[in-house]
What we know:
By secondary structure, chain A is an all-alpha fold. Helices cover 66% and strands 0% of the residues of chain A. Chain A has one domain (6-130): NADH:ubiquinone/plastoquinone oxidoreductase, chain 3 (Methane Monooxygenase Hydroxylase, Chain G, domain 1), CATH 1.20.58. Chain A has four helices and no strands. Chain A starts with 5 loop residues before the first helix and ends with a helix. In chain B, helix 1 packs antiparallel against helix 2 (26-46) and helix 2 runs antiparallel to helix 3. Chain C has a single domain, classed as Helix Hairpins (Orthogonal Bundle), CATH 1.10.287.3510. In chain C, helix 2 runs antiparallel to helix 3. Classes of the chains: A mainly alpha, B mainly alpha, C mainly alpha. The interface between B and C is large, with 88 and 77 residues.
Amino acid sequence: MYLDFHAVLVFLITGVMMVSTPMVLGMLFRPRNSYKEKDMPYECGEDPIGGAQIRFDMRFYTTALIFIVFDAEIVLIFPWAHVFAHHPEQGLALVAGLVFVTIVFFGLIYDWAKGDLDWVKSFRNKRRVQG
Amino acid sequence: MLDFMFIFFASLALLGGLLMAFHPNIVHSAFALVAALFGVAGLYWTLGADFLGATQVLLYVGGITVLLLFAVMLSTRDAARISIARYALMAPIVGLLGAFLVTTGKALVPIVRAAGGALGPTEPTTEKIGNLFMDPTAFMLPFEILAVLLLVVLVGAITLARRGEEDAA
Amino acid sequence: MIQLEHYLYLSGLVFTLGLCGVMMRRNVILVLMGVEIMLNAANLALIAFNKYMLPIDGIVEPKGQVFVFFTIAVAAAEVAVALVIAVALFRRLDTVNVDDVANLRW
């Protein structure tokens, strides 16, 4: 038999159904009286100005960058955890995993100490200038 | 069923790649890339690489694409429309290379066939991959070196990003 | 029935599409997207070969999959650094067009 992906298939179908069923039902039953104001992003809020694809703040990128590094770390750690859970007697595996985590942890300490994890950076910068 | 899955995911990958390469709006290109990467993840699943498919979805579809989109947002004033007609000269080169690749693939098939290659029963691969990672004679050293690479990214890329921030301020 | 050659053809085609992205587009970020697609095409070929590999003592070790695993992790690191460079380029020179950035120094 092929790999047991039936559960995934059922999960996918259920997920799609849970979203599409209310949408189709709503499409069938709702009254239709659309006018231009209803298409605005904030119907009762401020009027949006300009395009949606504007420049972001650099901090979003920094956060995403740190996220992706630890994403990669988790993915790499997962097979190790799988091995270690089933064969806890493998001392070498434990050492290898710990060394791996420790090395990446140094990077986390560096970013933390340098203040790249802070969203509000102004206080830290001010203190640096004064001191 | 497997044939159907292959055709579905292969067309997803090809259409996504096509849109990625030729859509004038870069944000739409990024979303086409999501489709293509998901198609490749599905192809991994058809090949029995369950854990790798999940990795692909987690790291590529969920991580790298978000980073790409953020970079687009950080580096464009408005939707970047780029003419591709100027570079139509590249088409023959690219076409030749594609033909070369397909022919090479065709030439490689009998060699792999001669080596035995049959589709064995498929089973979960996570533990096998973990065993290879933890085997000092196999991939333990590359595994640790990868940790160093991640450390370098955490330090180097963040430093570059911070410098860019200070330039702007 | 889908065989090894189908995966290899597909891999070649996807690689060519990525190459189109790299060679025909001038935006650094799009060039990077093309590189990602090319890496994925190579990964696909690796996994396909691994699947059809000759078993040693009756077992097929997923070494090809481990290679791809490393490739994906390295690609994540590569993209993270490359995109920071692209953003820095934009902040310094106000462009992400690779044709405008042809000088060795400025």
